[in-house]
Amino acid sequence: MKIHDVTVQLREGMATYAGEEPGPVLDFHSLMSEGRTANVSALSLGSHTGTHVDSPHHFLDNGVTVEQMPVEYMVGPCYVMEYAGEGHITAVDLEAARVPAGVTRLLVKTANGRFWDEDAFHPEFIGLDDDAGPWLVGRGIVLIGIDYMSIERFHSPAHAVHEALLKEGVVILEGLDLRRVGPGEYFLVCAPLPVAGADGAPARVFLLEGAVG
Ligand SMILES: [Zn+2]
């Protein structure tokens, strides 16, 4: 079995959404180099930093929060599709990708991956177009992932994709680094931290290849 870690490393100075969200900070309040018996730090970061899930509460005030999201949606067989286009991904593009029947967890690999090498935020990233949300819901998708910081285009006026997915309880997995995996079937392990009351939380995500599904 091969383990692909598709998580982005969390580090100070990394790109964050619109360059506005607070990025990771490790603040050491106990240091062995200063004579203390252990190194201990406080970690802070925005809830949508790096590889993370969105909970329904992100755009729906009454929606469930991260610790209530069903782990069954986040662990199981998944399919990675590759999108070679340059525009935002429409329902027609998803249809053309010929995702195998029965797939309920779908990760979309685009040209976005190249942006992870830079600390600057790239607003021109590829996201899902408005009609992709209902298409995914209609297909019975329970988890959708993408390889940059948002599932939908930058400054989408109504956040239609987020809303269409979150109101159906679909897990949105953002900030994946899929550069080292090809399209095909894997076993997904997506493990967000169960932060009580949170609108989103960082996740460690593995794609297992050759695992028993
Ligand atoms: Zn998010």
Explain what the structure shows.
The protein has 213 residues and is an alpha/beta fold. The protein contains four helices and ten strands, in the order ββββαβαβαβαβββ. It has helices at residues 71-74, 91-96, 132-138, 160-166, and strands at 2-5, 25-30, 40-44, 52-54, 75-82, 105-109, 143-146, 171-174, 184-192, 200-209. A seven-stranded mixed β-barrel has the order 4-8-7-6-5-9-10. Helix 3 (132-138) links the parallel strand 6 and strand 7 (143-146). Helix 3 runs parallel beside helix 4. The N and C termini lie close together (12 Å). The mean pLDDT is 97. Bound molecules: zinc ion (ZN). The site of zinc ion has 5 residues, from strand 4. Zinc ion binds at residues 48, 52, 54, 174, 200.
Give the key terms.
seven-stranded mixed β-barrel, two-stranded antiparallel ribbon, globular, 4 helices, 213 residues, binds zinc ion, alpha/beta, 27% strand, single chain
